[in-house]
Amino acid sequence: QGIEEIDQVDFDAGINSVVVIGNGIAGTNVADHIRRRHPKCQIHLISDEPYDLYNRMGLAKIIMTSKGIGTLKLIDDSWFEKNNINNWLNTKCRSVDIGNRRVHLGTGEAIEFDKLIIATGSSARILDVPGFSLNGCFTIRNVEDALRLRSYLQDHEKNSVFVSGAGLLGIEAAYSLCLYGARVTLLEKNSFLLERNVDQRASEILRDFLEKSGITIYTHATVKSISGKEKVNSIEIDHFGSDLLLSASAVIACLGIEPRTSIAQGTPIEIHRGILVDETMATSVEGIYACGDVAEFGGAITGLWATAGAQGEIAAKSALGIESSFNQDLIPVILKGAGLDLMAVGDLDSKSIDRMITVEEGQFKYYKLALSNGKMVGAILVGYLDLHNKVIELVRSNADISQFVEELENGSIFKLLDL
To answer: How large is the C-alpha radius of gyration of the chain?
Structure first.
């Protein structure tokens, strides 16, 4: 939206400067929603990355494409000009002076703020095993990581690439590597893929699809060590308690994230694993908020793109004094870049659920709908990409679908489009 479209909104004229640290989906959403509701204040969006907002969910695609970041960019320079947002790329935030309400930059400059939102994101968790410092070991967290992996695979054999961690990123990376011509083995420590997000049947369908695509999968598997002289040539894994030594040409760790909390360290801002926030995204210091991967809410850091985006909007509204609160249960988990569309949202295991509708239609088509008193409270879809948005909407609104139960049990899930 441009400023001319939002000039008529009510806003707090006492807020003159908002500083947002981090320009991922959380931070950029903060800047966007601040501007939508406050057309006059200065907004400073600061990032140590060289790029504006890009789609981190698509990072794995860079491995197999020659187009680089171009296919992932989500905004361009005109957006900042149109919305009068000061865009600071390649700029480090050295410290926050809470008493004087200033952010000190690596350039020597300082920016005053009335409201500060920390959206510094996270770094990739590495494999803490012997040998992970060898050439051929990677994490994937930003564009440079993906480009470095693509370059390495062009210079070296890709006949035995291991991906450790079968979360969303690990699965998407394994699939992209397979399309790139690598022989891929995917390692997962739990008993089935996406164990925290979907039921066992959805996971089995996903595994069947990936294996048919050419990916070897080990569950109950963890990396013990990586060996080689100058670069990786073997990997030792623990599989069901037995040690396996396998040839390896590259190892990619997709083991989750570590919140980047350094900007808040040494300040009164309370930190546990991430920066602690309440449902409004407020930290322990008045006027300072956190959102996205750096924020810890309810003891959890999800690392999900949709969560970060939603929290960015909540943080913006809260900073402007608009009542708003975050509900993690209504944030969908979506797998898109692995050849098979999968989505889970809402409550799928609480005692209030009194009916489960479970239908499997042919190969790689499955849905589960959770009902409480006739209302949809949760769902899993494998396939059915065209229904994702509608089902998310129905779960978020606790829609009453009791009139369609019989048809849904007989496979007529597209009846939901009538609601």
So the answer is: 23
Q: Is pLDDT at 369 greater than 80 in this prediction?
A: yes
Distance of CA 355 to the CA centre of its chain: 30
Q: Where are the alpha helices (DSSP H) in 156-263?
A: 168-179, 200-212
The answer to whether the beta carbons of residues 294 and 260 sit under 8 Å apart is yes
Mean pLDDT of the chain: 94
* Cα–Cα separations (whole angstroms), residue 36 to 41, 132, 171, 280, 313: 11, 45, 36, 18, 11
- Read off the pLDDT of each residue in 24-51 and give the average, rounded to a whole number: 96
Q: Find the helix or strand (DSSP H, E) in which 257 lies.
A: strand 257-259
CB atoms within 10 A of CB 350: 12
Model's pTM, two decimal places? 0.92
What mean pLDDT comes out for the span 367-377?
A: 97
Query: Could you tell me the two tokens for 315?
Result: 């943080």
Alpha-carbon dihedral sign for residues 347, 351, 353, 355: positive
Cβ-contact 135, 233 below 8 angstroms: no
Burial class (CB in 10 A: 0-12, 13-18, 19+), 389: exposed
Q: Residue 177 in contact with residue 63, Cβ under 8 Å?
A: yes
pLDDT tens digits for range 94-103: 999 999 999 9
Instruction: Single out the residue of 246, 221, 225 nearest to residue 159, CA to CA.
Output: 246
* 9 — pLDDT class (breaks 50, 70, 90): low
CB neighbours (10 Å) of residue 162? 28
